[in-house]
Design a protein that fits this description.
By secondary structure, the chain is mostly helical. It has 13 helices and no strands.
């Protein structure tokens, strides 16, 4: 008996390592494909970056040719791709045409505002969605269930930019509709934090209104399935109160699909911040991507594309690994 139980971890260990290595390897291959796609995709965008950079300034044909040579856009496409791929492997995404600064430096500056906005909105959306989903499933068909589900579906169907502008018009001057802080705010930490929170209300509400519906509907559906399980009937037969049955038995089991969905959508939420940040001029990666598109600023576009796509790939891998941790049936397979 002892020998058999001791041999089990030895079989499980290599299997877990192989699974982890396969997922990480697949993520690296996907990221390499994203790097290549980012290069090719933005080469078909209409517009000449050199002409855009010199717009409104008198330049000669020789000066345009010299600028193209300096930026490397006069080389054959294959040679540009090899140079770009070699630099990307070293973590070098070039220098922005518009800002004349390293792309990674610009991305680093804009990363924190995006993480702050998407992180706050995701946490609030999860809390609201789970609470309304649990409440709706336990009171299925009630008036509150119909209202919350219908409202969530309506908000989910609304275009994000339209919802953002609608909120901005509805609130008037109550909340700032652009930027992250006022320039004349006192430099102390409390004043700066309150100013950022004040500016974050509208973009955060917009993202919550669009995202929370997914968590509400998934949680509601999962809990409705669990409510017909035999173990809940057994728990009620033992004399447990309904609220105790819900908290201790039904909800923990129904949470599994929703928790994995949260991590699966984290990367998509970061990518989806482009619209919200553009509408509210929030100085994050989304607004930076929009500004790069107007150039077109090819190195900056490629860098933000890789970062945003990399966030989606990373969260997908993490969600898959988390699912194995939470569900013993998957671990055993």
């Amino acid at each position: 008996m002892a020998g058999g139980s001791a041999a089990r971890p030895a079989r499980g260990g290599p299997r877990v390592i192989r699974h982890l290595a396969g997922k990480v390897g697949g993520a690296l291959v996907s990221l390499l494909f994203v790097v290549a796609l980012g290069f090719l995709l933005f080469r078909v965008i209409p517009g000449d970056p050199v002409v855009a950079m010199t717009r409104g300034r008198p330049v000669t044909g020789d000066q345009l040719a010299e600028l193209r040579a300096r930026l490397g856009v006069d080389k054959p496409l294959t040679e540009q791709f090899v140079d770009y791929l070699a630099a990307a492997v070293r973590g070098d995404f070039g220098t922005s045409y518009v800002y004349s600064r390293p792309v990674l430096e610009l991305i680093g500056e804009r990363l924190w505002p995006t993480v702050l906005l998407t992180g706050t909105s995701t946490v609030l959306a999860v809390v609201i969605g789970l609470w309304l989903g649990i409440r709706g499933a336990w009171r299925r068909g009630s008036r509150s269930d119909r209202i919350s589900t219908g409202l969530a579906l309506a908000q989910w169907a609304m275009p994000t930019f339209w919802l953002g502008m609608l909120l901005s018009l509805a609130t008037g001057d109550l909340f700032p509709s652009g930027g992250m802080r006022y320039p004349d705010t006192p430099p102390d930490f409390l004043s700066q934090s309150l100013d950022v929170a004040h500016h974050m209300v509208l973009p955060c509400l917009t993202m919550i209104a669009v995202v929370y519906a997914q968590y509400l509907l998934v949680m509601r559906s999962s809990l409705l399935e669990e409510m017909h399980a035999d173990y809940l009937t057994t728990a009620r037969a033992k004399g447990l109160r309904d609220d105790l049955v819900r908290r201790r038995h039904a909800v923990p089991n129904a949470l599994l699909p929703t928790v994995t969905l949260v991590f699966l959508h984290l990367g998509l939420v970061v990518s989806g911040a482009i619209t919200v940040e553009t509408v509210f001029s929030w100085p994050g990666l989304g607004l930076l991507t929009y500004e790069a598109l107007t150039g077109p600023d090819l190195p900056l576009l490629q860098g933000t594309f890789v970062v945003l796509a990399g966030a989606v790939i990373t969260m997908n891998v993490f969600a898959d690994l988390l699912y194995r941790v939470l569900d013993p049936r998957v671990r055993a397979s």
